[in-house]
Amino acid sequence: MAPDVDTETDAETPGFAGRVLARLERLPVLANIAVVSALFFLTVALRTPIDVDEGFYALAAELVAHGKTPYADFFYPQAPLHPYLLAGIVGIASARFVVLRVASALLATAATTLVAHAVHRETRSAAGAFAAATLFAAHELSWQWLPTVRPYALGAICAIGALVVATPLG
Questions:
Q1: Which of 46, 83, 104, 111 matches a 20 to 30 Å C-alpha distance to 52?
Q2: Could you tell me the CA-to-CA distances from 104 to 6, 56, 86, 107, 170 in Å, in that order?
């Protein structure tokens, strides 16, 4: 004889499979947002004039890729995570400035997708996630600073990611 199962309680509290299915339902929404965001940030990154600071960050990445250490071998005024991340890219794809700009645009895309994920997770609304991603990407500080060879996109990912992880599921 089958054990008695309270179907109302089971339906209200999804198990592992229910949580996985809920995450899979978000993928098309977030994938579309990521594609649109990537197109936007790549366009901005490849059409924006080079700023003087970007050469400094690109040079720091190239020096790290050649075995130099920030603070000990050369002056670097910020935390060392960004030049080490870019050094990995320089090691794989050479020190071309366009490659570093594309990498920054992809980091900006990841930050925008994290914003959309956070909103979609809380509201279950594709329109809300798209609106939040649009507002984030269209903000002047986002489109001017994130797709450049500077540490701002990486900082945005870390800050938004920390908020997503720290926010309890609603």
A1: 111
A2: 51, 15, 9, 5, 31
Q: CA–CA separation, 106 vs 72, rounded Å? A: 30
Concatenated DSSP letters for 64-125?
HHTT--BTTTB---S-THHHHHHHHHHHHH-S-HHHHHHHHHHHHHHHHHHHHHHHHHHH--
Partnered with residue 74 across adjacent β-strands are 70
| DSSP line for 46-72 | HHSPPPHHHHHHHHHHHHHHTT--BTT
C-beta of residue 33 within 8 angstroms of C-beta of residue 112 = yes
Return the bridge partners of 17, or none: none
CA distance 137 to 156: 12
CA dihedral over 102, 106, 107, 108, signed as positive or negative: positive
User: Which tokens is 170 given?
Assistant: 């609603």
> Where is pLDDT greater, at 19 or 96?
96
Split at pLDDT 50, 70, 90, the class of 7 is: very low
Task: Give the Cα-Cα-Cα angle 86, 91, 95 (nearest 5 degrees).
Answer: 70
Q: Which of 163, 169, 28, 51 is nearest to 104 (CA)?
A: 51
